[in-house]
Each structure stands twice: as structure tokens, then as C-alpha cells.
Amino acid sequence: MPEILDVQGLSVDYLMPKGDVRAVDDVSFGLDRGEFLAIVGESGCGKSTLLFAVAQLLAPPAEVTAGTVTFEGTSLVGLTDKELAAVRWRNLSVVMQSAMNALNPVKSIGAQFKDALRAHGKPGKAEIAARSAEVLRMVGIDPVHLKSYPHQLSGGMRQRSMIAMAMLFTPDLIIMDEPTSALDVVAQRALMVQIKELQREFGFAVIFVTHDMSLVSHFSDRLMVMYAGQVDEIGDTRDIFERPRHPYTKGLLEAFPSIRGPKIPLRGIPGNPPDLARLPAGCRFQPRCPVAFEACSDTEPELCSVTGGAGGRSPASQQSSLVRCLRAKEDA
Amino acid sequence: MTELLKVDRLTRHFKIGNALSRRTLHAVDDVSFSIGSREIVALAGESGSGKSTIARLLARVYPPTSGTITFDGRDVARFRSRRDQLRYSGEVPMVFQDPFASINPVFRVSHGVLRSLKLHRPELSGPARMTEAARVFDVVGLKPDMLHRFPYELSGGQRQRVGFAQALAMKPKLILADEPVSMLDVSIRIGLLNMMTSLRDEQGVSVLYITHDIASARYVADRLIVMYAGQIAEQGPIEDVLTAPKHPYTQLLLSAVPDPKAPLSDVADRGEPPRVIDPAPGCRFRWRCPLAIGTCQTVTPALVPLTPGSPGSPSHEVACHVAQTGAEVRAFVS
User: Fold this and answer.
1) Per-residue pLDDT, B111
2) Sign of torsion, CA B270 B273 B278 B284?
3) What pLDDT, in 10s, does the model give residues B40-71?
4) List of long-range contacts for B301-305, beta carbons under 8 Å, 24+ apart
5) Which of A194, A170, A195, A191 is nearest to A182 (CA)?
6) What is the C-alpha separation between B128 and B135, in angstroms, rounded?
7) Separation of CA A44 from chain center
8) Residue A13: beta bridge partners?
9) CB contact under 8 A, A268 and B189
10) Strands A173-177 and A205-210
11) A209 contacts chain B (CB < 8 A)
12) What radius of gyration, in Å, describes the C-alpha atoms of chain A?
């Protein structure tokens, strides 16, 4: 069993008057101490809903309808807010997408740190000041900025201070939802390197959600590709980049141009992701798939283990790669 | 290639602060470049480098503090009559970054296209306008029945195509595209980029493609202009600039592009934006530049060609004292 987080058969439904829409469908994965898991997929594939379900932040009409989330041995599903408050931020924290909106614009950074510290512990004044300055220094921002308001900081600094806030209690797991999406390339790269350094120093595990697969290629240990609410492929990051098995993963990898090598015309992935309320029969990717055959339109593929993989960096318990594709199963 | 648009020493300052602390933000400082017909020019730089200000100056959202914009041989500032202004805004339309905010949600998507047709091409009758709207939808890769949809029924990629269709309806010569794909998923960006190249190749439209994504710029553009802190750091034919970047900032930008195929480069730069409020003379990149020399502290480098250009091939120009001495610049290795 994974040390930090174990998600088994998790499904999330949006309860709508016209019928329930399943945004996350039977997702299972585990996370070990200090591991970096990247989740990639297009908008609407359920990656953010999955994060919210793991952190127990779902609000109606969304609801966990099946499955378990076990964090450090305790099941999180069904805990009361009071019980969750003991876990949240102390052991598990979340960095939201676009820090421009996630920080309170009328409060200084220091005041927001104090709020988080007071909500989850009972620290003294001196302790608050010391810890706030310490975490800000960890992410490379001068502690004088505790007095600054969000608008006085650059986008990169705001995103860094969000990460500093997530580290106030040195949690075991930090969940990040597209933390770099509002930044330009140079700031983005700097932030990724920073997250990796902090992780090496403090040993927390990271779940990192992004739609840009190229971003995590050098940073994540394992990679999970989601499509239409399901896991399409999960495995060692380098292995997936070198040998993508699912046609969707291949499509994602070929969707971005490179600054090196010959200039080749790209096609991207034609079509749009399916409407979750009206899923196609068989494989969910089949209408967009370049290599689909007859069986794909009536058989729903299972997530199967494919052997191989050079071993990679991930711990022994997680080594096998899983792929949801009839053709990949045939090839293997 | 004939010259379509020419920008000469374009400058735009913004006054900030109150009457007592009068300060000036130099958003665009002394920028000169040109765009030819049937050419995609990429304008790259980080947030705050002035690239969107240039687009707004070209779209006449506000006038320049100084400098001139010449379009088709005529000074844009002299367009005083409504006819001239309308014609210019039809020939140089803009496509915005956020397709979720730039289309009116209460009307069908045909509304924007038909309105701009009515305003800019009054010679067309009602049915002819509808045919023309269907034609431009076809050009951008949308089915004509999409015209009757509401924006909420369309995906992000389709909405951005609607943005391009609106621009195309006015028979433009130059489209100002301000980060047109940055809000879209990586998987559908390529479709829009392919559409932009086909606009150039088949419709003969030029595009000013504003972006911070160098890889996508390389994919579509003929020429690259790299901006830093309101000034041009480097410009030239895109392959020349990318294979032999001369400005340390261009090298930094290139080294930061995520590339799964290449090993991770080791760059310590934090990506902090430059200060452009009342800047003192000197190179604006000197605070972040590992190669800065004495001259960089006091003299603002001018944009100087490294190789003489000819009418067929525009020259590769750089604004860096170190590069101009002829020394090899290796500030950030990618």
C-alpha cells in the first residue's frame, strides 16, 4: 500500500436535474512519500474535479459517489469539516490555479499567512512572524514582502507566496492545480525548479495538474493521462515520453512544436473531447482516434498492465504501466 | 515582399501616481520595425515587455507618445475622417487573447460577423452578408451552421476561430493577434496555428503574432521580434534568431522553453520583471545579464544589424553591447 495517499475506484458525479454527469470515473492511484505525480489532460477531462475530490473540497452539485481516498491511513471520504480541518493544511495543502485570484487582494501577504496559521494551529505572535518569514525565504522572496499586498508583487512572486503558504506546516502532500499557467516561460521554469528543490529538501509528495505535458517531462516521477474522466495511461514519466502507448498520449506529445530540429507540420488532436453526458459507445477516445478499429466502437477497454519500462525512477510498488486501449493491449 | 506597415521610433509612456509623485512608465520605448505583406511576424517577450501595448498602438486604441506608424504608405495619425479611420480598423483588425470574454454571450456568433460586415462593407446586401459570413466561417474551419450557435455552445478553440472569422470578414491586410492561443489547451493550439499559416498562404493576410511561446512562434512565423522592457532586444528571420541567438535575453527565453527531448538546462534566473518606471539610461537587461560590462550601465544599446540585409532577406539585428563588439555571447546555454 502506498505510504501517503491511496485512491481506489474514485468516482465523482455532478448531480444535475437532467441526470447525473460522471466527471471522474473509477480512478485509482497511489502516492509514496516524496513522489511527484503529474496529471495531464485537456480541459473538461476531470483533472481538477479529481483534485478537489482528493482534497475533499467538492461542493454540490458534485459528489463522491464511489471509491475511497485514504490519506496516511485515514479515510477522508465522509469526514466532517472539523475532522478535515485537523488534516488540511497541516498534512495536506492545496495551491490553486492562478494566484491572481487565489490571494485576497485587500490583505497583506503576512496577514494571509497569519490567517492560515491561526486556523490550523494555536501559534503565538512571535512564532507566526518567525514561521511566515521562514517560508517566504524558502521560496526565495525577501520577508519584507510580508507587508506587501498581492498587487505589489509580480505574477511569479504571487505564485511563489502561494506555495510558501502551502508549506506553513510542512505538509506531507501538496496538491497543485496548474500553478504555472498564468506565468511566462522564464518564470514558469524558475518556479518548477523551485518546487523540485523544495521537494528534495523537505520530502513532501506532490500532485501536479497541468494541460501542458512538456512542462513536467523533467520534473515528475510518474505521469497520469486523463481523458473524459478516466485514466488512459499511467506510468513512469520518462517511459511514457519515450514510449507512449495510448493514441491520446501520443497525440498530446505530438501536439506542441519544438524549437529544435526540423520544422514538421503538426496536426494536433482533431475534434473535441466528448460530452460527458453523452459518451460514445466503446472507447471514449475512439471518435478522435487515428488508429481505431471495429472493436473500439463497441468494447469499452479496461485499464491493462503492459509489461516493459526500463524501471525508471519510481518506487518498486508502482512500476507497472497501465494503459486503457485495445490496440495497445494487442501490441503488448 | 512589399512593406505593409512601418513603425518608426514608436514610444508610449503612461503617467502613473498622483500629481505629487509624477512618474512615467515606459511601456514602449523607441521601437522601429516593419511588417511585409503576406508575412507572419512574431512579437515575443515576457509579461510587461510592451508587446500588447504595441498591438494597441497599432489598433489605435491610444495614440503614441511619439513616433509614427505608416500603413500602406500613409501616416496612420493623419487618418482624421471617419472613412479613413473605419477603413484602417477594417484593414487592421485585432483578435484578442481570451475567447471567453471577447464574444458577446447574449447574441449568436453570427452577430459579430454580420455587424462588422454591415459597418465595413456597406455595399453588401443582407443575403450577401450571410453568404460572406458563411464563407469566412469556412475559411477558419467552422461549419456554416455554427453561425447560429451561441458562444456557450462552442469550445475555446471554436470561439477563437470565430474571433478570426470576425477579423477576416472585414477583408483585412494585417491581423493583430494578441496571444490568440495562450488560453487554449495545448492539444487544440496547433489547429489554430495551422489556420494562421493558411490565412497567410491562401488569403494573403499578414499577421502580427504576439506570444510568449517561442516554439509556437517558430511554427508559424517568418520573422521574430524579441522585446524586453519596452525595447526590441533582437529581431531577424526566425530561424536565424533561433539557431544563433545573439542577445542574452533571447538565450534566456530559449533555454526556458520546456522541451522533453532535450536535457534540462541549468538556468538560475528567477524571471522577475524589469523596472520600466523612469528607467535610467543603460541596457535594461543588465540586472539579469551575466555578461554585463561597464558600457551596459550607462549607454542604452541601439538595435544594430549584424549582417547587412537585402530586400529579399531581412537582416538579423541585436541591441547588445557585448554582441556588437563581435564577441561570442553565451549567457544562457540551452
Assistant:
1) 92
2) positive
3) 999 998 877 888 899 999 999 999 999 999 99
4) B303/B32, B303/B232, B303/B235
5) A191
6) 10
7) 14
8) A22, A63
9) yes
10) parallel
11) no
12) 21
Q: How far is B237 from chain A (nearest CA, A)?
A: 14
By the CB < 8 Å criterion, does A211 face chain B?
yes
Task: Say whether residue B166 is in contact with chain A using an 8 A CB cutoff.
Answer: no
> Chain A residues with CB inside 8 Å of B264's CB?
218
What's the farthest any 2 CA atoms get from each other in chain B? 67
Contacts of A152 (CB under 8 A, 6+ apart): A145
Residues 117-156 of A with CB under 8 A from B: 140, 154-156
A266–B262 CB contact, under 8 Å: no
Would you place residue A307 in the very low, low, confident or very high pLDDT band (cuts 50, 70, 90)? low
Distance CA B52, CA B49 (A): 8
Which of B157, B188, B252 is facing A186, going by the closest CB pair? B252
Contact B252 A258 (CB under 8 A): no
- Residue A189 has its nearest CB partner, among B190, B242, B267, at B267
Q: How many CB atoms within 10 Å of residue B19?
A: 6
A43 near B CB under 8 A? yes
The C-alpha angle A143, A144, A146, rounded to 5 degrees, equals 75
- Whether A256 and B189 lie within 8 Å, measured CB to CB: yes
Q: How far is the C-alpha of B276 from the C-alpha of B279, rounded, in Å? A: 5
For residue A117, which amino acid is it? L
C-alpha cell at A201: 529538501
Alpha-carbon distance A106 to B257, whole Å? 34
Q: Which residues of A touch B256 (CB under 8 A)?
A: 185-186, 188-190
pLDDT in tens, A241-276: 888 889 999 888 888 888 887 888 888 887 778 888
For residue A309, name the pLDDT band (cuts at 50, 70, 90): very low
Give the angle subtended at the CA of A254 by the CAs of A253 and A256, to the nearest 5°: 90
b (16+ CB within 10 A) / e for A170-180: ebbbbbbbbbb
Element housing A84 (H / E)? helix A81-87
Which residues in chain B are contacts of A260 at CB distance < 8 A? 259, 261-262
Determine whether the interchain pair B186/A186 forms a contact, defined as Cβ–Cβ distance below 8 Å. Answer: no
- Quick check: helix, strand or coil at residue B113? helix
B94 close to B134: Cβ distance less than 8 angstroms? no
Higher pLDDT, B140 or B265: B140
Q: Does B209 touch chain A (CB under 8 A)?
A: no
Torsion-angle region of residue A229: left (phi > 0), alpha (psi -120 to 50) or beta? left
CA distance to partner chain B, nearest, from residue A113 (Å): 23
